[in-house]
Amino acid sequence: MTDFRLTLAQHVRSLGDLAIVLDQLTLAGKVIARELARAALIGQLGTTGETNVQGETVKKLDVWANDVMVSALEATGLVCTLVSEEMAEPLHLAQHCARGRYIACFDPVDGSSNLDVNGIVGTIFSIRRHQGDGNDHVAADTLRPGTEQVAAGYIMYGPGTLLVYTNGAGVNGFTLDPTIGEFVRSHQGIRIPARGRTYSVNEGNSPRWDPSLRRYIEHLRATDVASGRPYTARYVGSLVADLHRTLLEGGIYLYPADARADGKATGKLRLLYEAAPMGFITEQAGGKASTGLERVLEIQPTAYHQRVPLLIGSPEDVTLAEEFISGGR
Ligand code: FDP
């Protein structure tokens, strides 16, 4: 008998106009997935030769996917401000602000160092309500803490294309069935294990870490059968892929602050469109997201492309990491 599962469109139906925004994001995800699948055949790999606002090399697919996201969200007529990793300044759609109810922050292609090697990449999005009156566009309205998100999600382009999202009522995952062009629910009510056995971090940076963090990782690598150590290391180098594994199997993902003088002293990941949405999703799955010293969702942003340290995953693992960082261990 055919197994009729819930589609994403059905799942979001009761969310009012937010459903329209989420529906357009799923459309963008389908279009990006299609392009990624044939990128090597149509000259879409490689760089544009430019660098973005954060000084990083811009890949052709970064720019292309940003255009797709902007078009998809603009078409809703409901999003009046867009903040993207690929745009130095927010894009304000004054014509939509009278009706405009949402601010969307997104990273069109996260993990883009994986693009040219057919590795896993993702799209991350965060949706908040526009608090201002009419078509005003003040930074204070856009720079709001993650606690104000009304929805957040990621689309993971791996062997399958998977969309995971929360609207504050738990976390659900939907896999794209390419034969019918629909995202179909495959992961219902995702809950992260209280503790895992895996850590995920770029250990090449360890000489520049704070000694407390090095001690924490050494602790995870030490053998202690009773507490499930040593942990196993896993690192894709794509936040979406590394966090997705962590959500399903437990453990911790870290991109800590390090001592480089090139702007990474406060971490690498961006608050508005990486750390905050992933923090919202993880908390909704029963996990924790921290800088080591504070809850990510409570950080008051001061800049659109602000970076923060991120420790995220199983609650017991993140709490232990915080204890090391704050000097309690
Ligand atoms: P990328 O720069 O390749 O887009 O978004 C930042 C990010 O990827 C994350 O997805 C990933 O986890 C991290 O950076 C990888 O950074 P490192 O290469 O420094 O480990």
Could you please describe the fold and organization of this structure?
The N and C termini lie far apart (56 Å). This protein has helices spanning 8-11, 17-38, 60-74, 94-97, 139-142, 211-221, 239-249, 271-284, 315-325, and strands at 47-51, 57-59, 79-84, 91-92, 102-110, 121-129, 149-157, 161-166, 171-177, 182-187, 198-200, 232-233, 252-255, 269-270, 288-290, 307-308, 310-313. The mean pLDDT is 93. It contains nine helices and 17 strands. 29% of the residues lie in helices and 25% in strands. The protein is globular. With 329 residues, it is an alpha+beta fold. The protein has an eight-stranded mixed sheet, sandwiched between helices. α2 runs antiparallel to α3 and α6 (211-221) packs across α9 (315-325). The longest helix has 22 residues, at 17-38.
Summarize the structure.
The protein is an alpha+beta fold and 329 residues long. Helices cover 29% and strands 25% of the residues.
Report the order of strands and helices: HHEEHEEHEEHEEEEEHEHEEHEEEH
End-to-end CA span: 56 Å
> Bound compounds, please?
2,6-di-O-phosphono-beta-D-fructofuranose
How many extended strands? Answer: 17
Mean pLDDT: 93
Radius of gyration: 19 Å
Count of helical segments?
A: 9
Could you describe the largest sheet, including whether it forms a barrel? 8 strands, mixed
Poorly predicted segments = none
Strand order of the largest sheet: 4-3-5-6-7-8-9-10
Shape: globular
